[in-house]
Design goal:
Layout (H helix, E strand, L loop, with lengths): L12 H14 L3 H15 L20 H16 L6 H12 L6 H17 L6 H12 L2
């Protein structure tokens, strides 16, 4: 069928840029992604995903102190039982996740967290509680 219908929408520029960057990395033109979305709406007879709020916080800035403490305690318990990744590998994984992705305001938050981890790695902070305090202080938590 010939493509002869136009679609005009107004969305936030940052959202548009972030989505288009991901689609570009995937090699999918925006028009193809929108066509795929529309086809799924028809096939599913509705929106093809659950539209709901996440059940857990997505980042530290959205966690309460109780939630953050619980997550840190869980991580500490995992570390004590040997369920760990070498520090260099963890930093490399974080850096790989940041490469090529425009995070806008989240980039500065991510860099602050990495800087806090680098303080630990460099030995400027050696105590676990002090490391937590340093990361919290640098991120205004």
């Amino acid at each position: 069928m010939a493509k002869s219908s136009n679609l005009y929408v107004r969305i936030e520029p940052e959202l548009k840029e972030r989505a288009e960057a991901i689609l570009s990395a995937l090699g999918v033109p925006v028009s193809t992604a929108i066509t795929m979305y529309y086809k799924q709406i028809v096939l599913q007879r509705g929106i093809p995903f659950k539209a709901k709020l996440p059940e857990s916080p997505l980042d530290v800035s959205r966690m309460t102190n109780v939630q953050l403490d619980a997550a840190l305690e869980k991580g500490y318990a995992e570390a004590m039982t040997g369920h760990t990744v070498p520090l260099e590998q963890a930093f490399e994984d974080i850096r790989k996740g940041l490469d090529g992705i425009e995070l806008h305001e989240k980039a500065s938050e991510a860099h602050k967290i990495i800087a806090g981890m680098e303080d630990v790695e460099a030995g400027r902070v050696t105590d676990g509680d002090a490391a937590l305090s340093a990361i919290r202080d640098k991120n205004g938590i």
